[in-house]
Amino acid sequence: MRAIINGTIMTITHGVIQDGMVLIEDGKVKEAGKRHSLPEYCEIIDAHGGVVTPGLIDCHTHISTFGEPRTMPGLQVDGNEGSDPVTPYVRALDAIYPQDPAIEMTRAAGFTTIYTGPGSANVIGGTGIAMKLRGHTAEEMVIPGTEAMKFALGENPKRFYGLESKKAPWTRMGTAAILREALYQAKHYSEQLERAKEDPESEPKPDFKLDALVPVVRGEQRVRIHCHRADDIMTAIRIGNEYHLDFTLEHATEGYLVKDRIAENDLYCVVGPLLLDPVKQEVWGLKLETPGILTEAGIKVCLTADTSGGTAWLPIEAGLLTRRGLSEENVMKGLTIYPAEVLKLSHRIGSVEAGKDADLAIFDGNPLSSLTLCQMTIIDGEIVYQRNGGIL
Length: 392
Description:
The chain is α/β, with parallel strands linked by helices. It has 2 domains: 96 residues, Urease, subunit C, domain 1; 294 residues, Alpha-Beta Barrel (TIM Barrel). It is built from 11 helices and 16 strands. Strands 1, 2, 3, 4, 5, 14, 15 and 16 form an 8-stranded mixed beta sheet that branches. An 8-stranded mixed beta sheet has the order 6-7-8-9-10-11-12-13.
């Protein structure tokens, strides 16, 4: 058994506990509360007046799929299968590289779980997956059952295909049409599979592409829809509702323009990157006030760096939001419990509670401050990072 003592515990779901104690046993949080007498044979981790949080979570990264380090000119990264605008059958799982330097860098910043997935060149880009930042093989790292499908609207598909490859989609209309066609065919294919349970002779010819979309059109697999501009957000909502999809809005850069529509559809927004230059037209409307505006409208906002090793700097970037309409409490929720909910893992991670995985981070100050360093990261009760000369 281990005990973390002498720290302020940000439980996320049950307030802040001064001079708290976290007991860890068999990879789980056994107890989190005010300090009391310790059990016998307990290993002590002294937080030295620091802050204990649940392990941080970025639920939209490209760690491993856009591998690091890179070269100039760049080698082809594994994040976009640019051979076809519709590739639901590709899996980020097959691109996970446990020795990617971004993993160690992100873990050292207090992150314990991330979600990695394909990029946004394709209209349908394939499945991403959540993983814990430890282990030597993809199988040790990934969390089965967290797969989600990537869709992309806006500039990226029409630039990658229409402008650069001279094939569809050329326009936003074309992107939406390609997406609808794929979903229409997958829905028909899914219905054929259901009928075949009663009438085996009606079973359709196997289709690898459509088969990957069956859980999507059945509402069994969540869809992560890349959409920056307000009109793209509305297209995501329109198509998502047409096909009764379980979906989230990724980036939602201009979400403040359609906040009421997002709220009435009860959608999560995964907002970021927060400090992006106006590198393309669809992000010209970026505001650091957006997360606060969305939260005020009743929308749950997750925060993302939308990158690889750059996720390590996300807490500092998120700290800027506390002067721009988002409370510190909701900033921390956007780095913990809300992304856990998006990944459908809130029963295991995202807060410091008895029974949850012992995924924890210890900071020597406010986790959102540029003056703070992560001193220790713990995953499933095991210390996976310890800063030199830091906490013991």
